[in-house]
Amino acid sequence: xxxxxxxxxxxxxxxxxxxxxxxxxxxxxxxxxxxxxxxxxxxxxxxxxxxxxxxxxxxxxxxxxxxxxxxxxxxxxxxxxxxxxxxxxxxxxxxxxxxxxxxxxxxxxxxxxxxxxxxxxxxxxxxxxxxxxxxxxxxxxxxxxxxxxxxxxxx
Length: 155
Prior knowledge:
This protein has one domain (2-154): Histone Acetyltransferase, Chain A (Up-down Bundle). The chain is built from nine helices and two strands. The protein has helices spanning 2-16, 20-27, 34-46, 48-54, 73-81, 85-93, 102-113, 120-126, 128-154, and strands at residues 59-61, 69-71. It has a two-stranded antiparallel sheet with strand order 1-2. The longest helix is centred in the last third of the chain and has 27 residues, at 128-154. The two termini are 14 Å apart.
């Protein structure tokens, strides 16, 4: 548990270095690299409760598949998270890591964790901001795994 806390603390220090211009750069991408999209998917999934207070996850048609729709995490992030960089940073820094909804962890595993572009190198290759955001998502996921596994011992 101590190792997970230390890792998360180090990640939060990095996240605190994010600047408004880093997030504005990501928001301005017309066609983001896959690593940016999958990283933002993780941020959106983990912040679903926050997004649902002001709107909903955007659903768009799937290209070349008539009638099929999917959650568009990039557009959702642009509209609800990247719109106010100061609020996003506050949300990330004050995230309640001990009360993560298990459904969000399941969805994160399904959408992001096995994706080939969901890794630190590709995330930083997309932008400095997505590198830091990747670190935040991964740290929250890892913390949750350790927190959940050690819960019986703590009780």
